[in-house]
């Protein structure tokens, strides 16, 4: 297709004139891989069609929410019915109560839930709640984990271990960044050092239990156990950011997987998003009752939202949760994702390409590295040129992966074995050229 007939290029040019970078969220801009973003016209099941009407097998699913695939008929019907009853009231509804009950039933670490409209909002509110509950200011986060774009969370490691963080975005005051301590993921020694130095000042540790924003990196069981012990010893809260993993890696979230290996394990606060809205703007955070009762209007920690618990979003989320609660849903999804990952890995090794994979439920990561990474620094050792070549060759053939080597991938229930076999076959050809 020439630039003159490529409608994605034409639209991207128009977009860049009126939207910064032509996109409403940076990773959509293809900055990491180069080239022109595909503008989506419509989507159905495991596919979407771009502005040129080219069909793609979708391995991002809106970065997680579309676990059932696009346009599941039962979800569409639920949303259509909700639309007819009104878009938003600014007053409570039954569906919010049912959804909160449903979330609590699936994730018993949460006695109570507060609904918001984005993962960023949920993470920011959870942080305020942890600080309000403990009366402390400092927070610990880990390099490579993403928790939305609140000021206190856009912080990278400072010069020395556990020294003051430095903001990773212009516009974040140094005064805000200084209370965020950034440590290496999976580094037990660093964590112990930080708690030994300032344990009594730490309000919370916030983490992705399986990091899905530095590709796919699991927290080790030893690391997870130590975080739980140290936070408890020092009176700090443990916040699990399950915006990506919640209802995607398992019905009970990543916390249910760690609880299988660490008896009695549970985080104090859980942050949810993506799947719980089924593609509509919906997120939430929850915790034990004594923590949640600190929230306004019961307690002194303020939090609010005009569109929070939106009636159309709750209809979409509830139907999605109902459908994924079917027994065996996540086990099937895990097998399907495994089929894709094992297929890619075996084709890569047949072609002599260093490659490693990991997956859980409908979330996956693959690396052009001989061994799975355990930290952000290791993830970033990936050869970007090799990834980009693979990425674009797959894209040209209609297989849409996340456009950056540090992003995870997503499989939905709508992907068939045939879809996945076609992707593996395409990759087989591409690996030979790398
Ligand atoms: C996507 C994501 C967020 C932010 O959610 P938004 O809805 O994009 O604001 C926060 N935490 C994690 C782990 C995420 O994957």
TrEMBL record:
Which terms under GO biological process does the entry name?
A: protoporphyrinogen IX biosynthetic process
* Annotated InterPro entries: 4pyrrol_synth_GluAld_NH2Trfase, Aminotrans_3, PyrdxlP-dep_Trfase, PyrdxlP-dep_Trfase_major, PyrdxlP-dep_Trfase_small
- KW Endoplasmic reticulum (keyword) present: no
User: Which Pfam families does the record match to this protein?
Assistant: Aminotran_3 (PF00202)
Q: In which pathway does it act?
A: Porphyrin-containing compound metabolism; protoporphyrin-IX biosynthesis; 5-aminolevulinate from L-glutamyl-tRNA(Glu): step 2/2
Report which reactions are catalysed by this protein.
(S)-4-amino-5-oxopentanoate = 5-aminolevulinate
**Cofactor field:** pyridoxal 5'-phosphate
What EC number(s) is this enzyme filed under?
A: 5.4.3.8
How would you classify this enzyme at the top EC level?
Answer: isomerase
Q: Which UniProt keywords apply?
A: Cytoplasm, Isomerase, Porphyrin biosynthesis, Pyridoxal phosphate
Subunit: Homodimer.
Protein family (similarity comment): Belongs to the class-III pyridoxal-phosphate-dependent aminotransferase family. HemL subfamily.
This protein is called Glutamate-1-semialdehyde 2,1-aminomutase
List the top taxonomic levels of the source: Bacteria, Pseudomonadati, Pseudomonadota, Betaproteobacteria, Burkholderiales
């Amino acid at each position: 297709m020439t630039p003159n007939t490529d409608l994605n290029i034409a639209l991207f040019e128009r977009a860049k004139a009126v939207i910064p970078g032509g996109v409403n969220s940076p990773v959509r801009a293809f900055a990491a891989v180069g080239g022109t973003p595909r503008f989506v016209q419509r989507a159905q099941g495991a596919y979407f069609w771009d502005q040129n009407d080219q069909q793609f097998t979708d391995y991002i699913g809106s970065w997680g929410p579309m676990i059932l695939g696009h346009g599941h008929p039962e979800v569409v019907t639920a949303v259509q019915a909700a639309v007819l009853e009104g878009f938003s009231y600014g007053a409570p509804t039954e569906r919010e109560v049912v959804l909160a009950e449903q979330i609590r039933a699936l994730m018993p670490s949460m006695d109570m839930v507060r609904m918001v409209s984005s993962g960023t909002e949920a993470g920011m509110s959870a942080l305020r709640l942890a600080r309000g509950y403990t009366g402390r200011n400092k927070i610990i986060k880990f390099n490579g984990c993403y928790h939305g774009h609140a000021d206190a969370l856009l912080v990278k490691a400072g010069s020395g271990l556990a020294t003051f963080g430095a903001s990773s975005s212009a516009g974040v005051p140094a005064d805000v960044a200084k209370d965020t301590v950034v440590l290496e993921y999976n580094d037990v020694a660093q964590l112990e050092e930080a708690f030994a130095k300032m344990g009594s000042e730490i309000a919370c540790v916030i983490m992705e239990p399986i990091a899905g924003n530095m590709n796919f990196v699991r927290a080790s069981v030893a690391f997870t156990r130590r975080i739980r012990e140290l936070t408890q010893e020092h009176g700090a809260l443990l916040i699990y950011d399950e915006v990506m993993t919640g209802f995607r890696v398992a019905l009970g979230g990543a916390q249910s997987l760690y609880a299988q290996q660490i008896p009695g394990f549970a985080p104090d606060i859980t942050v949810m998003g993506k799947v719980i809205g089924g593609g509509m703007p919906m997120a939430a955070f929850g915790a034990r009752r004594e923590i949640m009762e600190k929230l306004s209007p019961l307690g002194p920690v303020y939090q609010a939202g005009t569109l929070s618990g939106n009636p159309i979003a709750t209809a979409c989320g509830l139907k999605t949760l109902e459908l994924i609660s079917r027994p065996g849903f996540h086990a099937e999804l895990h097998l399907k994702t495994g089929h894709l990952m094992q297929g890619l890995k075996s084709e890569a090794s047949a072609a002599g390409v260093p490659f490693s994979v990991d997956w859980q439920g409908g979330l996956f990561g693959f690396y052009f590295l001989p061994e799975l990474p355990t930290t952000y620094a290791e993830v970033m050792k990936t050869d970007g040129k090799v990834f980009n070549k693979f990425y674009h060759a797959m894209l040209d053939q209609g297989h849409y992966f996340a456009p950056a080597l540090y992003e995870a991938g997503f499989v939905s229930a709508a992907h068939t074995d045939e879809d996945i076999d076609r992707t593996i076959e395409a990759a087989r050809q591409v690996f030979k050229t790398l």
